[in-house]
Amino acid sequence: MKQMTAMLGLLLLSGCRESAPSPPVIEDARVRLLPQGSGALYFRVTSSDDRLVEVRSPLCSWMDLHETIHEGDVARMRSVPAFEVARGEPLVLEPHGKHVMARCQEVPPNVTTLPITLRFDRAGTVKTDARVMKASEW
Amino acid sequence: MSRFAPLALVSLLVVGCQRAPTEEVWVDGETTPSLTGTSVTAGAPLSLHDLRGNVVLLAFGYTSCTDICPVTLGRLQGTLRELGADASRVTPLYASVDPHRDTPERFKSFLSVFDPRIVGLSIPDERLPGILDAFDVVAEKQPPPVSRYVAGGEVDPEKDYAIDHTTSILVLDPEGRVRIRYSMRATPTAIAKGVRTLLREGAR
After folding, report:
1. Which pLDDT score is estimated for B15?
2. Interface test with B, best of A51, A56, A100, A136 (most B CBs within 10 A)
3. E-only strand ranges, chain B
């Protein structure tokens, strides 16, 4: 009986303790860069409950979280303060939906990857490289 | 009337009320709107009237549009590829709704990464509202983004704004009539099929 109580106690304790967020996993990071420096960045994030609040790159002068909203056949691009990620539900940034809008005029020609840093409320910063896409790729 | 009729009707209504636009819409083809501007590609005036005899694929956008427009141009390219030899009877036209930023130099630079057959069209500011109206196309300038990350310089209201706009590809027949509107979900294969139908019509 004592053993069962102890085990039950342990179980309850482990359930109550807030587990540290596992580091977010960033996949399929890719960026469309147009000749005059405008860009759109896409990727997929898998993580514990968290919020993506900022993305930056040393080669870009600004980066803004955006969502394209479709109203009939009109596309409206809107700035958003953050992207929520829920445990078990990947955050997907892809063409015609959520994306990071950027102005990156310092990117040398023929570059194949763009270094990026993502900042999350709970998990902190995560660095990765985004593959440079062909302009018309989707 | 079968007793399933009310259920069928309700199902139809529910399906019909979906917000996503139909991929392919054939329009009545009565209108031959005029569109005159400057071909950025040729550096010379260009009007739709000059293109009669060809099927015209018409899309509206701007060069600072990074998420939607490059994909639309990719689909125009894909359509040309699908058409093969028939592409010589098609003019893909990309008209800018952003005369303030889309100078000929910037426009040419933007187009350089796409199929060279795509013709860029500049429309003067004062003519733009009338043209948008004639083609039933929306273009609404928005305030600049509130940036989450800005390094060094600032977001520039003169340079860093987005324009809400219609994403459809319009298809005009060789007589200059608007005949089909393709939503952004329509594939190059579907668009090529519609184009071929219009090309065959003329051959009758």
Report:
1. 47
2. A136
3. 24-26, 36-39, 44-47, 55-61, 90-96, 119-122, 139-141, 149-150, 163-166, 169-172, 178-182
Question: Which chain B residue lies closest to A95 (C-alpha atoms)?
Answer: B67
d(C-alpha A46, C-alpha A67), whole Å: 19
Closest partner CB to B64 (pick from A38, A63, A68): A38
Count of residues for chain B?
Answer: 204
Instruction: Decide: pTM greater than 0.90.
Output: no
Q: Which residue of A has its CA nearest to B78?
A: A136
Only one residue has tokens 């057959």, namely B117
pLDDT in tens, A76-99: 999 999 999 999 999 999 999 999
Residue B1 to chain A, least CA–CA distance (Å): 34
A61:B181 CB<8 A: no
Count CB-CB contacts under 10 A for residue B42. 10
Whether the complex's predicted ipTM surpasses the cut of 0.90: no
DSSP of A71-112: ETTEEEEEE-S-EEEBTTB-EE--TTSEEEEEE-TTPPTT--
Using a CB-CB cut-off of 8 Å, the residues of chain A touching B164 are 74-77
Write B105-113 long-range contacts (CB < 8 A, 24+).
B106/A36, B106/B63, B107/B40, B107/B63, B108/B40, B108/B41, B109/A35, B109/A36, B109/B63, B110/A34, B110/A35, B110/A36, B110/B63, B111/B40, B111/B41, B112/A35, B113/A34, B113/A35, B113/A134, B113/A135, B113/A136
Question: Mapping DSSP to helix (H, G, I), strand (E, B) and coil, where does residue B157 land?
Answer: coil
